[in-house]
Design goal:
Chain B: Belongs to the bacterial ring-hydroxylating dioxygenase beta subunit family. The complex is a heterodimer of chains A (425) and B (162). With 425 residues, chain A is an alpha+beta fold. Chain A has eleven helices and 21 strands. Chain A has two domains: 103 residues, Rieske Iron-sulfur Protein; 252 residues, Naphthalene 1,2-dioxygenase Alpha Subunit, Chain A, domain 1, CATH 3.90.380.10. The model of chain A has no long low-confidence stretch (mean pLDDT 96). Chain B is an alpha+beta fold and 162 residues long. Chain B has one domain: Nuclear Transport Factor 2, Chain: A, CATH 3.10.450.50. Chain B has a six-stranded mixed sheet with strand order 2-1-6-5-4-3. Chain B starts with 7 loop residues before the first helix and ends in a 15-residue tail after the last strand. Classes of the chains: A alpha+beta (425), B alpha+beta (162).
């Protein structure tokens, strides 16, 4: 078997073979062993709050329909007509009791049940008695604290077991609000001309923070004359199953609840009160973590939850080795005060998203990696060793343990695949 | 101060000047076109009237942030635009309303091409402006960019000023 990942703990060296970013065969293996078997984020409960609410979602390469059915259950239907295959729901979101395929006018209740079609006399009386002509739902759909996931493998372990130690960190984000978090409108649908795993790495990489985002920190320093030196310090942690987190302090404001000088004095007082409330609910130590520490979490394989200057969730999927589609969400407390919400959103947009002062530079870094991988024939390995010399239990946030955790899980899953005949590339 | 009687052509020329400044990367001069309370916004795709508290915009700049945006893009460390991309902006179907009122509103279609590293991306949509006279010159009070795209694919970013 060709070696793809060299994890040499004696030499403190961790190498990733660059073919994993460019090889079509690897993408086929990833689809079979990773995207068809792992829990994948589809959306948040607050995107479909009312019965009949639906939203089209692309997950794991499928065209799905996240729908809040009339029976109260949230389902992920495959958005394809059981008759001849056409996409059934064509609007990206809405509210409806019925979905109707325009091709031959078959219609379905919003739980997927076939409701009727023209020319019934041409079909047997017991047509669809086994439900085979209903719109099919993804069998495994589970959620944690409002985050909904699907799994295309019916034998998969539960979401709860899958998330494991990552739940603690999702909790720290969700606990910012007693009323829960909600997704804002306008999910950002963008792309990067780079391999999907580069974004997984980048999202839990604090090492790149200063060199890549210097212009953002220049602006922070100009806004805060008290900020003499940009401090990005904390810990990196392996959360098992390929999940990882970095938890650290940073010089930006946090809407819950770390004030920053560009915000008003009123907000400062509000932040102090919010912090006191958190102390009452959770005690001093946990309140300090919630309010003053930042967390970038990677949930293997393709969900990132960043609880930083705002809360963003992003999920991504490769349509080819060198191109991924990204969906970027913003999450905020339900019922958040207008002024706070505005401060949060401005904080988000200053750094994050396709129009932010930082995310486009990440995009560029990833694309430059991808572009230069055409040297792979002669220059074969990426180095992800930073911090190994300290021992993984002492990893700093600016080390690369978070990425190694991802890659170690990747290695387990892909090695399993390497024993098999290659899936169709 | 004399208020000069404006014609539609003055307003159109002003917009062409804006486009030219952006294409020539004269971004500080671009920022200087805005009033002290000027804003530059890109609302979510498909939701041009979205509320900035309920929805996530792409850009929601007040005057100081649009200044920061312009100055950031001129730095070598604004990696995504270093070396600068080559851009070409076309404004078409320009509709000017209220040329005699205090606030002139303009709506136009735009096509902005950007090329870098031999990849050409095209942004299309509508610009909506509020334009005022200030010290005998025209100035932008607000600029809203309504993208007529399905998503930011394959563009991936709005790193330049639209």
């Amino acid at each position: 078997m060709e070696e793809l990942i060299r994890d040499n703990r004696e030499k403190n060296e961790f190498l990733v073979h660059r073919s994993v970013f460019t090889d079509k065969e690897m993408l086929a293996r990833e689809r079979a062993e990773i995207f068809n078997k792992c829990w994948l984020f589809i959306g948040h409960e607050t995107e479909v709050p009312e019965k009949g609410d639906y939203k089209r979602k692309k997950v794991g390469g499928r065209n799905l329909l996240l729908v809040h059915s009339q029976d109260g259950e949230i389902r992920a239907l495959y958005n394809t007509c059981p008759h001849r295959g056409a996409l059934v729901a064509r609007e990206s979101e809405g509210n409806s009791r019925v979905f109707r395929c325009f091709y031959h006018a078959w219609s379905f209740k919003n739980d997927g049940q076939l409701n009727g079609m023209p020319g019934k006399d041409g079909f047997p009386d017991d047509f669809n008695c086994d439900g085979e002509k209903d719109m099919k739902a993804v069998n495994r759909l589970e959620s944690y604290r409002g985050f909904i996931f699907v799994n295309f493998d019916d034998q998969a372990i539960s979401l709860d077991d899958y998330l494991g130690d990552a739940k603690e960190y999702i909790d720290l984000a969700a606990d910012q609000s007693e009323a829960g978090l909600e997704v804002l409108g306008g999910v950002q649908e963008y792309s990067v001309r780079a391999n999907w795993k580069l974004l997984a790495e980048n999202s839990v990489d604090l090492y790149h923070g200063m060199p890549t985002h210097k212009t953002y920190f220049d602006i922070k320093q100009a806004q805060d004359p008290g900020l003499k030196r940009v401090k990005l310090e904390g810990r990196g942690k392996d959360l098992g199953n390929g999940h990882a987190v970095m938890e650290y302090v940073a010089p930006w404001g946090r809407p819950v609840a770390q004030w920053t000088p560009i915000w008003s004095e009123d907000l400062k007082q509000d932040m102090e009160r919010m912090k006191e409330k958190l102390v009452e609910r959770f005690g001093e130590e946990r309140a300090d973590r919630i309010a003053n520490y930042n967390r970038n979490i990677i949930i293997f394989p393709n969900l990132v939850i960043n609880d930083i200057m705002a809360i963003t969730a992003r999920t991504f999927y490769p349509s080819s080795p060198g191109y991924m589609e990204v969906s970027g969400y913003s999450l905020a407390p339900v019922g958040e005060d207008e002024e706070h919400r505005m401060a949060r959103n401005n904080n988000f947009l200053e750094f994050l998203g396709p129009g932010g002062f930082a995310t486009p530079d990440d995009n560029e870094a990833l694309e430059l990696c991808q572009e230069a991988y055409n040297n792979n024939e002669e220059v074969q390995w990426n180095d992800i060793s930073k911090g190994m010399v300290r021992g993984e239990e002492n990893a700093m946030a600016t080390d690369e343990l978070q990425m190694r955790s991802f890659w170690r899980q990747y290695k387990v899953r892909i090695e399993e695949s390497m024993k098999k005949e290659v899936a169709q590339p | 101060m004399t208020v000069v009687a404006l014609t539609r052509q003055n307003v159109v020329d002003f917009l062409y000047k804006e486009a030219k400044l952006l294409d020539e990367w004269k971004l500080k001069e671009w920022a200087a076109l805005f009033t002290d309370d000027g804003t530059y916004k890109v609302p979510p795709i498909g939701k041009p009237e979205a509320s900035p508290t309920e929805s996530l915009f792409y850009v929601h700049d007040n005057r100081s942030r649009l200044q920061e945006r312009a100055e950031r893009l001129l730095k070598k460390e604004a990696h995504v635009e270093y070396p600068h991309s080559t851009t070409l902006r076309n404004y078409h179907n320009i509709l000017v309303s209220g040329v005699e009122s205090d606030v002139i509103t303009v709506e136009c279609n735009f096509t902005t091409h950007r090329t870098k590293r031999e990849v050409l991306d095209t942004f299309v949509g509508k610009h909506k402006y509020e334009i005022v006279q200030q010290n005998g010159e025209l100035a932008i009070k607000s600029k809203k960019v309504i993208l007529h795209l399905d998503s930011l694919r394959p563009h991936g970013k709005i790193s330049l000023i639209l």
